[in-house]
Design a protein that fits this description.
The complex is a heterodimer of chains A (627) and B (171). Chain A is of the alpha+beta class and 627 residues long. Chain A is built from 17 helices and 10 strands. In chain B, a hairpin with a 4-residue loop joins strand 6 and strand 7 (150-155). Chain B is elongated and about 80 Å long. Chain B starts with a helix and ends with a helix. Classes of the chains: A alpha+beta (627), B alpha/beta (171).
């Protein structure tokens, strides 16, 4: 029943998309300035239907309708309701449906909220959006249908993979998808702008907020994914340069470059084609990321099931997007003369863009290099953290200095008048850095440079804030994001230098001592829960100096549906540090292997990223107020 | 100059997409397709219901044997089940079902609900025996002749095409 309803709604949505395209095309040939009501109506209806369609699938998950293959493979009657709902987008088919829903709703919102722009521009954007919607709907219907029926109906489902049963992961896909799909809007708008020659600075207003929305959500989405990896995967890290993490980072670089360039375009009417290229690039990278993780070319937790047919479809779609973009761009491209002064805001923003492109290309190369080597030479290699750290970290130092100076440089032409202040801040940063290294006894050239540049950025951003606050011209969102970025780099640096990691095989009752700590294996319990059994260890971590005790309880969980073993880290978070403990059993022995980690300032890393995104949301709020 | 840049950009994109296309066909998973044509040597499968074992000798008595790996928890197994029922009517072919990493009760319910196509039924509770057959996911089926030579290997659920191929081989 639900299956028929779902399929019907999908077909209707396709039909409505064609209707919108047809109506828009007809309206384009008429002279009026207004978009006919009928287009608004169809678009409203389409959004409503697609939302109902999504709720149909959620309903199927809640009532455990195992006649749907997707529900059967990803749910179970005993699962808590929260995870039944989250399971809707915890799989390939459901998450694609989520993708299309956001796409449809965003197209609708774009139509409604951009009334001041020329009609042809809006209509062509709408047409391209609907072509994208149709593309994805066809993909859903004929390749990845969440409403496919399974007969005879099984009595029980297979359950959601236990490592995916986590609150962070329940909100990770929606956040990230808002980022990915948000970029489709400015992809369409860019193409439409090329076609209709709408290259005035007012073009910025139509996409500015979309860039901010997608960037802010993308930032949060990446953060939540990291937090999940930290809590759930049990190796204590939060970023591994995994191809899938990279896939979400690539569009983020492009977006960051884009909204900085938009500022220049809006103020000085420069960089039009560069802005367009970035608009196109962002969505192309989003789809490329989807292709890489969904086609099975890369194996990861996101490869729900590899299916070459799926890959070919996305790849064809991607190629089409790429070549249409390139074709239009080449056809319309005109050489722009910049004549920038070396010491001007424009130049500094351009430098920001170069850095973003540098990061983007580095990460892109690292991600696809193994694929190329495998395809062309048949060798299997992997590119790991050493590559990224070596290439990216030195550049970060220089980048941070530019980022500190950029915001205070004036448009068009500036003077190096406050060089004294810079030297003062630099001296201060160096002193703070050596205080840190001296007090905590650790030294390495690169990490010191990174910490110095991060502190430099923090101090200059804060000083800017104070200076402009007096003149009442404070750019709060920028200050918050920039300062938070400085703090993020600082905390990651400190975290990296001062982490402690120890590995032991330990028996019940035993105590191990290292540095200033002692670990005692106090107790071992077996407990039964509704959907798993748990072996829970109780270990006491004692700080010898302060006599402070912390009890940690790592678990080994044995899930029933599907039967899997997971290792739950026990994490004690405090303001200055996290204690992180994982435990695993050793076959045929009384010993357990424990891995203890002390990770300083973890919570501040999360908070910094939240603040970076918060800056974006704040700007969005301000833009909304000004309109 | 501009033309050179344009052509370069185009070539780079073509190259990247081309490599992606090639990569799609590459199977990055562990693959046992090359098992075809080889002889299976060690067979030691426990009866489903008793503490007895199927060995090579048992299988050599059949003209052709289709070894099918299945479980009650496997969705595609349900899809291929009707074809197995049809195959069970063939006189020249014996079906050996290997119940893979499954609970006995649920396996019984599965066969009761959908019908039992198997001439012989064995179990591989921990998936260890199946390694000898190069099984890495189910459903998988292997067609053997009376020399225990692997004639065909079907990864994933049997399709109508596979069914026709089997019929053609055994007749």
């Amino acid at each position: 029943m639900l299956s028929n309803l779902g399929n019907l709604l999908l077909f209707l949505s396709i039909f409505l998309s064609f209707a919108i395209i047809y109506a828009s095309y007809k309206s384009l040939r008429l002279s009026g300035k207004l978009i006919p009501r009928i287009i608004y109506q169809i678009s409203t209806l389409q959004s409503t239907l697609i939302i109902i369609c999504f709720f149909t699938l959620i309903a199927a998950f809640i009532i455990s309708d195992f006649s749907l293959i997707t529900v059967y493979q990803n749910s179970h009657t005993l699962k808590p309701v929260f995870y039944k709902i989250a399971g809707t987008w915890g799989n390939h088919e459901g998450s694609l449906l989520l993708w299309v829903i956001i796409l449809t709703i965003f197209s609708f919102l774009f139509l409604v909220f951009n009334k001041n722009h020329p009609k042809p521009f809006r209509l062509i954007t709408l047409i391209i959006q609907n072509i994208l919607i149709i593309g994805f709907l066809f993909f859903i219907l004929f390749n990845s249908n969440p409403f496919s029926v399974l007969l005879p109906v099984p009595k029980e489902g297979l359950g959601l993979n236990p490592i995916l049963q986590d609150p962070a992961l329940a909100i990770h896909p929606p956040l990230l998808y808002i980022g990915f799909v948000g970029s489709s809007i400015y992809f369409s708008a860019a193409i439409s702008s090329l076609i209709t020659n709408y290259s005035q600075t007012s073009f910025v207003h139509s996409i500015k907020n979309w860039v901010l929305i997608s960037w802010s959500f993308q930032t949060l989405g990446i953060l939540v994914g990291s937090i999940w990896a930290y809590y759930e995967l049990g190796w204590g890290g939060f970023w591994f340069w995994d191809p899938v993490e990279n896939a979400s980072l690539l569009p983020w670089f492009a977006m960051t470059a884009l909204f900085h360039s938009l500022i220049v375009f809006e103020k000085r009417n420069l960089f039009y084609f560069w802005v367009i290229i970035l608009c196109l690039l962002t969505f192309i990278l989003s789809v490329t990321g989807t292709f890489l993780v969904r086609s099975g070319i890369l194996n990861s937790v996101h490869t729900f099931a590899s299916d070459p047919a799926r890959g070919i479809y996305i790849l064809l779609f991607l190629s089409l997007m790429v070549f249409i973009s390139i074709f239009l761009l080449f056809k319309k491209y005109k050489i722009e003369n910049y004549n920038l002064n070396a010491n001007s805001k424009e130049t500094f923003i351009l430098v920001n863009n170069w850095f973003m492109m540098f990061y983007l290309i580095t990460v892109l190369l690292g991600t696809i290099y193994p694929i190329f080597i495998d395809a062309l030479m048949g060798n299997q290699i992997s590119v790991g953290p050493p590559f990224y750290n070596t290439v990216i970290l030195p550049a970060v130092v220089i980048f941070l200095f530019f980022m500190s100076i950029g915001p205070r440089v004036k448009w068009i032409k500036s003077h190096f008048e406050n060089i004294k202040i810079y030297l003062l801040i630099l001296a201060g940063s160096i002193v703070i850095n050596f205080l840190i290294s001296f007090l905590l006894k650790s030294y390495s050239v690169l990490s010191n440079l990174i910490i110095i540049s991060a502190i430099f950025l923090i101090i200059s951003s804060l000083q800017d804030a104070v200076k402009y606050y007096r003149k009442n011209r404070i750019n709060l969102s920028q200050t918050i994001s920039h300062t938070a970025f400085g703090f993020l780099v600082l905390f990651i640096g400190l975290n990296h230098i001062f982490s402690i990691e120890k590995d032991y095989n330990i028996k019940l009752g035993e105590t191990k001592k290292f540095n200033n700590y002692s670990i005692k294996f106090q107790n071992l319990e077996l407990e039964n829960y509704s959907n798993y059994k748990a072996i829970i260890g109780e270990l006491i971590i004692k700080d010898v100096k302060t006599e402070k005790k912390n009890i940690l309880r790592p678990e080994i969980r044995i899930y029933n549906n599907p039967q899997t073993l997971t290792y739950e880290a026990s994490i004690r978070t405090s303001i200055l540090k996290d204690y992180y403990l994982t435990m695993s059993n050793i076959d045929r022995s009384d010993y357990y292997n424990i891995k203890f980690q002390k990770k300083p300032l973890m919570i501040w890393i999360w908070i910094s990223v939240i603040m970076i995104a918060f800056g974006g949301f704040l700007r969005l709020l301000k833009n909304a107020k000004n309109n | 100059m501009q033309r050179i840049i344009k052509i370069t950009v185009l070539i780079i994109f073509l190259f990247i997409i081309g490599v992606f296309f090639i990569s799609l066909d590459k199977d990055t998973n562990y693959n046992t397709k090359n098992l075809i044509g080889k002889n299976i040597s060690k067979i030691n499968l426990e009866y489903f219901n008793e503490k007895k074992f199927y060995t090579e000798e048992d299988l050599k008595k059949n003209n052709y044997t289709l070894v099918n790996f299945w479980a009650s928890w496997c969705a595609p197994c349900r899809n291929e089940h009707p074809l197995l029922l049809k195959l069970s009517k063939e006189k020249n072919l014996k079906l050996l079902g290997v119940n893979f990493k499954d609970k006995k009760n649920q396996a019984k319910i599965f066969l009761k609900d959908l019908g039992n196509p198997y001439d012989f039924l064995a179990k591989d509770e921990f998936g260890k025996q199946s390694i000898n057959f190069g099984i890495y996911g189910i459903p998988e089926s292997i067609l053997l002749n009376n020399n225990l030579k692997v004639l065909q290997k079907f990864v994933g659920p049997l399709t109508l095409k596979d069914y026709n191929l089997i019929i053609e081989i055994i007749n």
